[in-house]
TrEMBL record:
Its EC number is 3.5.1.3. Gene3D superfamilies: Carbon-nitrogen hydrolase (3.60.110.10). Belongs to the carbon-nitrogen hydrolase superfamily. NIT1/NIT2 family. GO terms for molecular function: omega-amidase activity. This is Omega-amidase nit3. CDD domains: nit. Keywords: Hydrolase. It comes from Saxophila tyrrhenica.
Length: 297
């Protein structure tokens, strides 16, 4: 039996076609989550901003209040819908992300909620690295115009399986986060994300495979489906990469769900074949050894 992943687990990434109608997005998500578990999925993932269009101008309009937790249904319809979906489908549900509003500080966050199969909230991740980029003639995007960053790494223990890490989209570009999660024994790194037509083509698969290769873990990226009528055109191509950095399954750009069976044996086999875990030279690079990251169990 693997130390990291106690038994094999079926992962589903729901590449949802989200539009501007929040309640329609929630009910569409529900039917896709139920479909995924009827196909045997144990962990189901939704995309970044699955209940709204993606864009800074949309965040305030769609934002919900999550604290103090649990929020009321009026404060956060998405919290309650996700909790119900997890319970109804009896799955671990990584609820993509939603825009969140803190009334006290008047701040907004890009926030991911994960629920257990009883509908209980297990973890909240607030996007740590905000998506602020400028590629002349291609894309200019500044989440920090509206959002504030979260400040912790999110590790989640699933008792039957093991530990996973959840982060959001641009967070994948920071290998430090993935490295610390893997060193703290995560078997799977999950990133609800919405790359675009410029960086999607260049870096989506590369980032997923790099994080998997560096850390010899599974990586799952879950995008919204591409909508060429929307202001922001998501890349799509939700994918699962295995610890050997091979793409196990990949969606195209349309709505759909992709599945992968994750096994502890694959992790063990990879680490045995290429034993970097025992070969690190922290005497040569002591300042990158684990332990400096703010982390709450
Ligand atoms: O890193 C990228 O290129 C895209 C990131 C992104 O779209 C996001 O963080 O929402």
């Amino acid at each position: 039996m693997s130390k990291l992943l106690k038994k094999s687990v079926k992962l589903a990434l729901v590449q949802l076609a989200a539009g501007s109608d929040k309640s329609a997005n929630l009910s569409r998500a529900r039917s896709k989550v139920l479909e995924a578990t009827s196909n045997g999925a144990n962990i189901v993932v939704l995309p970044e901003c699955f209940n709204s269009p993606y864009g800074t101008k949309y965040f305030p309009k769609y934002a919900e209040t999550l604290l103090p937790s649990p929020p009321t249904k009026e404060q956060s319809p998405s919290f309650h819908a996700l909790s119900e979906m997890a319970k109804e489908s009896k799955s671990y549900l990584v609820g993509g992300s939603i825009p969140e509003y803190w009334a006290e500080t008047k701040k907004y966050y890009n926030t991911s909620l994960t629920f257990d199969p009883n509908g209980k909230l297990l973890a909240t991740h607030r996007k740590v690295h905000l998506f602020d980029i400028d590629i002349p003639g291609k894309i200019s995007f500044h989440e920090s115009e509206v959002l504030s960053p979260g400040n912790k790494l999110t590790l989640i223990d699933l008792p039957e399986y093991g530990r996973i890490a959840v982060a959001i989209c641009y967070d994948i570009r920071f290998p430090e986060l993935a490295m610390i999660a893997a060193r703290k024994d995560a078997f799977l790194l999950l990133y609800p994300g919405a790359f675009n037509m410029t960086t999607g083509k260049l870096h989506w698969e590369l980032q997923a495979r790099a994080r998997a290769m560096d850390n010899q873990v599974y990586v799952g990226l879950c995008s919204p489906a591409r909508d060429m009528q929307a202001d922001y055109n998501a890349w799509g191509h939700s994918m699962v990469v295995d610890p050997m950095a091979e793409v196990v399954v990949e969606a195209d750009e349309k709505e759909g769900t992709v599945y992968a069976e994750l096994t502890g044996e694959k992790i063990e086999e990879t680490r045995k074949g290429i034993p970097i875990y025992g070969q690190r030279r922290f005497d040569v690079y002591p300042d990158v050894s684990a332990g400096k990251v703010k982390y709450e169990e």
